[in-house]
From TrEMBL:
Compartments reported by the entry: Cytoplasm
Reaction catalysis annotation: D-glyceraldehyde 3-phosphate = dihydroxyacetone phosphate
Similarity remark: Belongs to the triosephosphate isomerase family.
PROSITE patterns in the cross-refs: TIM_1, TIM_2
GO terms under cellular component: cytosol
Protein name per UniProt: Triosephosphate isomerase, cytosolic
Provenance organism: Coffea arabica
Keywords: Cytoplasm, Gluconeogenesis, Glycolysis, Isomerase
Subunit structure: Homodimer.
Enzyme class, UniProt record, top EC level: isomerase
EC annotation from Swiss-Prot or TrEMBL: 5.3.1.1
Protein's pathway: Carbohydrate biosynthesis; gluconeogenesis; Carbohydrate degradation; glycolysis; D-glyceraldehyde 3-phosphate from glycerone phosphate: step 1/1
Length: 254
């Protein structure tokens, strides 16, 4: 089964009204492969969701960077899945390492968030990944398997889930997992899905790579058999994001 290449742009906590308009203008003018070759989703901060949704080209979609674990209510500062659905935002990023590490979101908490968001009709980019200490101690696969299991324990339908493998040591550091390192973890994750969920889910679920992806390294990473796209951080704020989207052509011609 062919898995459509997926490129997500995580703008993180960046941007002003004017900067966001400029990014959108660059994206709208970009010459990129068609929707049958690549699915593109950009994720601005909450306050810029309506602006982005209202002015972004129709073949690109919009994601929130987080949402609450259950229905809204007395949860100051939180945004519920229902609110995102109400704004017609189709995607949400959950379990990003910055939230896991800085805000202490546990595997179980992330798993509950993913299940609730899916139950409300959102599509989810679910993030997993190990720290430098975990990689150096040889526990990478154990860590990402535990993170994935916490989602699998709560989710039965994986149709609307994209898994983003983001080695924490490579996020924003300029260090990138080599194509071989990325492929190794992606292949092991797919094996885990095959053994613990089903061969069908393993074959159809897109596993994307995040961690200092840029215009210079994206083609080589995209050529790896089990790398189905990217979750891009800093480079998604720059014109080179268009080049990263274009790396989908590598898969098309493979």
């Amino acid at each position: 089964m062919g898995r459509k290449f997926f490129v997500g742009g995580n703008w993180k906590c960046n941007g002003t009204n004017e900067e966001v308009k400029k990014i959108i203008s660059t994206l709208n003018a970009g010459d990129v492969p068609s929707q049958d070759v690549v699915e593109v989703v950009v994720s601005p901060p909450f306050v810029f969701l309506p602006l982005t949704k209202g002015s972004l080209r129709s073949d690109f979609h919009v994601a929130a960077q987080n949402c609450w674990i259950k229905k809204g209510g007395a949860y100051t500062g939180e945004i519920s899945a229902e609110m995102l659905v109400n704004l017609d935002i189709p995607w949400v990023i959950l379990g990003h390492s910055e939230r896991r590490l800085i805000l202490g979101e546990s595997n179980e908490f992330v798993g509950d968030k993913v299940a609730y968001a899916l139950s409300q009709g959102l599509k989810v980019i679910a993030c997993v990944g190990e720290t430098l200490e975990q990689r150096e101690s040889g526990s990478t696969l154990e860590v990402v398997a535990a993170q994935t299991k916490a989602i699998a324990d709560r989710v039965s339908d994986w149709t609307n889930v994209v898994v983003a493998y983001e080695p924490v040591w490579a996020i924003g550091t300029g260090k990138v997992a080599t194509p071989a390192q990325a492929q190794e973890v992606h292949a092991e994750l797919r094996k885990w899905l095959h053994a613990n969920i089903s061969p069908e889910v393993a074959a159809s679920t897109r596993i994307i790579y995040g961690g200092s992806v840029n215009g210079a390294n994206c083609k080589e990473l995209a050529a790896q058999a089990d790398v189905d796209g990217f979750l891009v951080g800093g480079a998604s704020l720059k014109p080179e994001f268009i080049d990263i989207i274009k790396s989908a052509e590598v898969k098309k011609s493979a």
